[in-house]
Predict the 3D structure of the following.
Amino acid sequence: MVSDAHHSPAAGTTLVGRGAELGLIVDALEAAKRATPSVLLVEGTPGLGKTALLDVAHELARERGFAVCRAKASLVEREVPFAVVQQLFDHLPDEMSPRRDDQAVQHACDVIAGHVDDREPSHVDRAVRSLHRFAAELALHAPLCLAVDDVHWADVPSLRWLNHLAHRVAELPVVLLTTRTPGIRPTDPLLMAELELRSRRVRLPFFTAENVSRLTEQFLGRTPDEKFTAALLDGTGGCPTVTHHFLSVMRDRSVVPDHNAVSTLLRPESENLGQSLLARLNRQSPELVEVAKAIAVVEPSGLDLLTAVLDVGDGETADRVRQLGGMGVLTPDGELRFTHRVIKNTIESAISYREREDLHARAARFLHHRRAPAPVVAHHVLRTSARLGAWAVDVLSAAARTAVGEGDPRSGAKLLTRALAEDLSTAERNDVVLRLGLAEACFDPQMAVVHLEEGMAGLDDPATLLKAACRLTQVLYFDGAYDTASEVLRRTRAVIGQDDPVAADMIRLLERVTVPSAAPETRQVDFRLIDEREWRRGDARGRALAGLVAEDASSRGVDLPTCRKAALAALSGGTAAITQDPRLVVAVLDSLLRADEAELALRHSDEILFEARRDELTLTTLLGHALRSRAHHLRGSFREAVADAELALSAARAAKLPDDHFGQVNAIDALARAQVALGDLDAARNALRPFDGSRELPHTWHHTALLHARGAMRMALGDTEGALADQLECGERLQHWGRPSPTLRPWRSYAALAHLRLGQPKPALDLALQELTLAREWGAPTTIGRALLTVGVATGGTSATPWLTEAESVLRRSPARMLHAEAHLELAATRWEKGQHDIARHHVAEARALGERCGVAVEPGERLHGLTSAGAPPAQVPQPAGPTQVARHDPRINALLLTPHEHRVAGLVLDGRSNDEIAHELGVSRRTVEFHLTAIYRKLGIRRRTQLRAALAGYTPRG
């Protein structure tokens, strides 16, 4: 039994996993000593260790007293008669030299010496017979082992002699060992086939995990873990040559065999290994190397493209592919795929830059001539810097249009950047530059400004100009460059004129929500005068207009129903339709949050983040996390809000945004507010450190919002005067810009609390009442509930009870659970002071329950000193009903729980409409209808459609 592992110090060879093959060789050697000859043909793909096996066989034969003669056939010598024979016998020791008195032996010696160069068949026949006699004479002195590597390249006369010997070896003590690579066309296929028939064929397999483990032990002197073995086997494809190479490198560098070692070594070593493997392949056939390189670079799907790239005939290409398949380089199924990625990677690494470019250029020309799809042709154009002409520009532009349309602006920008390397006219360049800027706005705003401004110069097409102006304004808005944004919009409006009134109104509306200004001209357009059909069209322009309508309504705190409808209309094409427009993402999600649609905002922010991360849209990803943080904050999920805000800030820093960029400031604002809500004041102060209290913040929308967050932190830290100053400054700016409503920031409530802490009740109550008036005009429960709560706190005493009671009632319909908990605590304190201790305990219990749902511990304040921690109300105290409890008693109140849009959906359900019919009627997606139904069921405390009529008994559907 021969060991599975064998080390040959003389040959410098280590074999593992070749025990069965070595066993066959040893059996053949032992049989030859008993005058039973053997002919073995070892087959294997390049790199499987055929030559290494011959090295060990050579040593085993010498150990058993054999005379060993070796030769290696090669492509360059296949035309030299008896070249292999001459290698076998040219350096025999003197003691083995046969007697020269035999004419046949003398003739054989002349052949071996190269003195006979006659190619006539009759002379070759004589030489073959003489050489057989010569070998027989040698075998009389000692058993003979003849080893021929790469026998498929052997010259024809040598092949004839090998076949003659295999046929007439009879009872001579001879072992004939040969190796070949399958798939390679031999010098003479018929002679090779004849030798195969007379040989015992031995096929070398690839390494197994056990082989890799044992070889690692031999090389590195330690047993590897399973992860290392699996990683090395996967990375090398089980190829012995590749495995030996990497283990040798590890031994030289004293690298520990863990799974990290494989990943760090495979990449840097691939180039050297690639050259080695290509050299092996080149020894077989230089033409095969060119085929392998072309397949590795071009990755053709069929022989037609490969043939065009190689510039050879169809039949020749097919023949070379078959050879590579037989050699194990390509899969045998004809799919032009490498058998393992390590082979592809190593071949790729040895291809020069110029070779790559040339191959891709050839592929692009052929595919364009065949009218292949633009993205397929552009794939190759993109990978060559050669100027290909006008057709390449058309292909790149078409492929970029497809990429951007599928939500991949980065790829679109790469294609358009490549188009700029071609020879373009001025008009063509402006068009490409403009489209490049539109794509870059999603991930590289600085370059987007440069390209959009260049592309818009001299542009007179109204639709294109409007799209470019909106995108450029978006980028300038995020940078806080309001004056430039305003100038861009005014120039655009001047070009468009009155030819498109809706577009002109859209520009005015965009300027109003973008540029903070008290100028009268920004108030000349009213979204309520814009035909609703224009922003419910469902196309890109309609969705953009709907987003502007929703944002304008919500930021000014007017017309909540229209705001909701417009936000949903902007989302009618799905989140993927707006993901590439960060400005629209902010407008829509902000509007939903101001309208108390927190669940809907969370759902869409999840979808937007999925799309943005997939397409590497840095700015949209950043804003998506910041907006989702705000949604969590509204719901009282402060820990989740902190987590999302930190992700947003991390994305902003990774993008290297300036400190005052909208994305950076927005993320800090969300993070600080959430940390203050959690009571982590040190973290909030650290987040706001770049904008400490001594710094006057710029007059931008986002810095003004940050004033509100900074004021909340200063209040929590005990800096009441600083907090009041920040809130009043925030409010002064918003009012000056025509945004008095608390929908943007409830600065009056926070300022009122600061006034109270400073002992100034009158200005506190005045601010609270102002906020309540504006909140009722808006109509969202959270905004009204907060204002009522502030009025109650500012009023104080027994007079506060009605305000606080109404606040608690209104906040039941709000997603703001922690604000609802505050209302309960204020009511508890008021009841406790009036001696109504049981009711106070009930309110505290409700507040704690809400806090538990938010993951926040709610405790009574000093005003509730003496309240027991049990908190359970006595049975005789009537418990105020939550939304579900009320719904079971009074269907009229049930209807009040629903938003106007939910009213409409519920009415259509009661009319017997299906979800698809409702979606068509409302101009929204089916998923939006399903989301509204889920919200309706939750608010009414039901689980299915069939329960809706009973829950809304007596409710008349609204048309």
Notes: The mean pLDDT is 84. DSSP finds 47 helices and seven strands in the chain. Residues 816-880 form one domain. The CA atoms of residues 468 and 852 lie 49 Å apart.
